[in-house]
Specification:
Layout lengths: L4 H17 L2 H8 L6 H18 L10 H19 L1 H5 L6 H12 L15 H24 L1 H4 L18 H29 L4 H12 L17 H15 L2 H8 L5 H4 L1 H24 L6 H12 L14 H13 L12 H19 L8 E2 L2 E2 L2 H27 L4 H12 L7 H4 L10 H15 L3 H4 L10
Antiparallel strand pairs: 1-2
Helix pairs in contact: 1-3, 1-4, 2-7, 4-6, 6-7, 6-21, 7-9, 7-10, 9-10, 9-11, 11-15, 14-15, 17-18, 18-19, 18-21, 19-21
Amino acid sequence: MSNYKTVFFTLGILQIILGIFMLIPIIAQFFYNEIDSSFFGASIATIIFGTLFFLSNLDHDKRLNLQQAFLLTALSWLSIAIFGSLPFVFSSIEFSFTNAFFESMSGITTTGSTIISNLEDMPKGILLWRALLQWLGGIGIIVMAITLMPIMSVGGMQLFKISNNDSSEKILPKSKEIALRLIYIYSCLTLLCAISYKLLGMNIFDSLTHSMTTIATGGFSNYNESIGFFDSFSIEISAMIFIILGSLPFIAYIKFLNGNKKIFLSDIQIKTFLKIIIISIAILLIYLTINSSAEINLRFISFNIISILTGTGYVNAQFDNWGAFPLILFLGLMFIGGCAGSTTCGIKIFRLQILYSFISNQLKKIIYPKGIFVMKYDQNPVDDKFIASIISFIYMYFVIFFIITALLSLTGLDLITSISGAATSISNVGPGLGSIIGPNGNFSSLPDISKWILSLGMILGRLELFAILVLFLPSFWRN
């Protein structure tokens, strides 16, 4: 176990940070006269466990090899989800541990699925804690996607190495510098979003919590009607802008600050991401214009397309009443997701771009058998090993999706709920489809076993599948 001192030392620091953040909702409790011991007790318990991990592993070697990087990635999210559930367990709402863990996992993975059916009646401390979990999950996955996952070569993420000279032994020193810059950018975007919401009509509490879940593309709201509660076109425009900003690769922000002022216009992922939004809006607008007798509203179409594609999960309309095709379109958008190195999940834009190039090259080889075609991504050649990792990721993504769908159906859920529940968990979207978990429903009525299956799907999707699956290989644990 001494080989893992760096892992447990880092976990101790993360738990201490989480425990400190648990003290923030106490301010809301005091301000709204809702004082109880839930957050203080949860904070003390979390800090004590974190301190024990921290102190018992002080003599670590301050290095992280590849095996330890995988273990740290999985244990970080799992431990934060477990300890993050304590405020729900200790609260006066009397969450069961299953419901508390589901809500916590949904928050930290920025999924946005909820078991709470009466959000308007929830204590402000609980609402603030849900937003904080998503905010922490958002910055957590950005830092991990840019610093750890490229080194671990998870699903083609090695394409986004900061430097070609990176090695697993250099992860921790380099990540400190990068993480600080990312936190600064992330915090500034959150602050700008909160100011925007406040100026457009939200109260201070709503603007703060919704800004955190917007930038994290998490989608937790303080109201059952989500953003639709405010019925404000200006607020929805602001939400769309900041959702898109949270869905862009954060390495692009760093490059912009370093002097590359054209990065947002030249980045191949960003351009494709924006094209998908525009094309999806146009397709749905044409379909509803031809086939729907209801009044067509570009506002609702645009907002829900952006929200579903990015996995945010905010809603402002009952899109499950739009017909069968829009639901199929939304299901497809759930799988796509946003850009690598952002707060979004899903398959990611760059993988689909590379898959398209690979298929295109295969077709060219059939037409021109003697031709030589070099695979490139953003003017950089990609080798067969890299392409194999992309294809295996996409293959496993759909295999796990079908497995989760089958498991959910075995628990008694109907086909639509099972399919959309599996999609929304592995893609970290939030609401599913249908009357139970659709935009007007929630996950409270699902059996406990279904919630545990969905929670597993959430962490698998958030950590790019292989960061979890590799832990179950016996060869992983061999030196």
